[in-house]
Amino acid sequence: MTKQETSARNRIFRQVAAYYKKFHKKPAFRPGESFVNYGGRVYDEKEMINLTDTALDFWLTSGRYCAEFERQLGAYLGVKHVSLVNSGSSANLIAFMALTSPKLGARRIKPGDEVITVAAGFPTTVTPIIQYGAVPVFVDVELPSYNINCSLLKKALSKKTKAVMLAHTLGNPFNIKAVKDFCLKHSVYLIEDNCDALGSRYDGKFTGTFGDIGTSSFYPPHHMTMGEGGAVYTNDGQLKRLIDSFRDWGRDCWCPSGKDNTCGCRFTQKFGGLPLGYDHKYVYSHFGYNLKATEMQAAVGLAQLKKFPAFVEARKKNWAYLKRALAPFAKQLILPEPTPNADPSWFGFLVTVRENAGFTRDQLVAHLEANKIQTRMLFAGNLIKHPCFDEMRATGRGYRVAGKLENTDRILNSTFWIGVYPGMTHEMLQYMAKTFADFLRH
């Protein structure tokens, strides 16, 4: 870049910063008038400057920002390989599909094989399993952790079990030791859906790095954002190649975007029924997709990553405030508890209304929403009761339930959550606590 171009860009960046400071100011919070959102974007001029930088480059697909984000996220998490994708749902899809590759031999997941998971969560943890033709095996969760009941893993096990695919619920790690020991004992894969738990630790180590593959989402309400975006990470070199193949059209070539002949043997190899020397850039070893992220997404993500440690601390602080504020109502509400040996980076604050509370979840939620406090269900509640499962429920095929889903149904009927995101001010937290108290003391 010439000095003249650098100077021109710097002038533009100064103008962008001034624009942010003038037009992106957030209005003061007014209790009862302003919304208390469950999540949202926390940003400043740095994200906007990075975004402008990519616009001036006009390199619209993945490039230098994507590569740098992958490097920095890998360094932060302590993993060898990070692959940026266009969403967290795509990250889960790619993580699962990588384990179906014929290159994995006898350990590959095939249609009809089983994957242990839970129904109390977000659907795209389960969707890839069903779409591929494998069989999800659902087990119940525990309260107040809202994570898998590990005592049911053995009950869910069969000769067809090939993997366990689980999310860390709203930032609270599941019992990783018990799950990992189970996976190692039975030689099955572990996929950690880390989309709601980026920055959480278990035994001092980041979640998402214990399994064979971990995933993240960078949708606006998540721990950091790119608008849309996600990541798949692993310490296994072979899995990294498979992840990138499925992400990048299913191609066998591993050249980065805009590069040719990185391997030095682009026109000298033999693949399948193709003629000798067929261009390696157009050899396809899998039925893949195009799920790459863009430079614009990664540019925002890089600015967010610098703020990320502060985001985590803010989430912890906000969660702790709500836990203290709602502690007097523990006879009416089941309040969340972190998993032993875990240090959660909380995504939200979960509340379950007790059976003898004298009111229902829906009544409490209606009170909060009427007072402009956003609430959310624990995603699907019980996924197998949703319309997408109608045909499978009717036929009794396509999934299996190991035991009963009693706590899952309890979550479906009695659980919701509120936000703890970093943009929440002390005034918002005070207002939330007061609004709860007004209802619960009535």
Brief descriptors of the model:
alpha/beta; 2 domains; 37% helix; 13% strand; 14 strands; flat; three-stranded antiparallel sheet; Aspartate Aminotransferase, domain 1; Aspartate Aminotransferase, domain 2
What does the model show?
It is a single chain. This protein is α/β, with parallel strands linked by helices and about 450 residues long. It has two domains: about 240 residues, Aspartate Aminotransferase, domain 2, CATH 3.40.640; about 130 residues, Aspartate Aminotransferase, domain 1 (Alpha-Beta Complex), CATH 3.90.1150. The protein is built from 13 helices and 14 strands. The strands form three sheets. The protein has an eight-stranded mixed β-sheet with strand order 1-9-8-5-4-2-3-13, with helices on both faces. Strands 7-6-11 form a three-stranded antiparallel β-sheet, with no helix packed on it. Helix 7 links the parallel strand 4 and strand 5. Helix 9 packs across helix 13. The longest helix has about 30 residues. It is flat, with a radius of gyration of 23 Å.
Q: What structural class should be given to the helix and strand makeup?
A: alpha/beta
Total count of domains = 2
Which strands sit side by side, in order, in the main sheet? 1-9-8-5-4-2-3-13
From the 3D coordinates, which CATH architecture of the largest domain would you assign? 3-Layer(aba) Sandwich
Order of helices and strands: HHHEHEHEHEHEEEEEHHEEEHHEHEH
The CATH topology assignment of the largest domain is Aspartate Aminotransferase, domain 2
Q: Specify the helix fraction band.
A: 25-40%
Give the end-to-end Cα distance, rounded to a whole number of Å: 66 Å
CATH superfamily of the largest domain: Type I PLP-dependent aspartate aminotransferase-like (Major domain)
Shape: flat
Largest sheet: 8 strands, mixed
Number of helices: 13
Output the radius of gyration: 23 Å
CATH class of the largest domain: Alpha Beta
- How many extended strands? 14
Beta-strand portion reads 5-15%
Q: Low-confidence spans: pLDDT under 50, at least 5 residues?
A: none
- Could you report the average pLDDT, rounded to the nearest whole number? 96
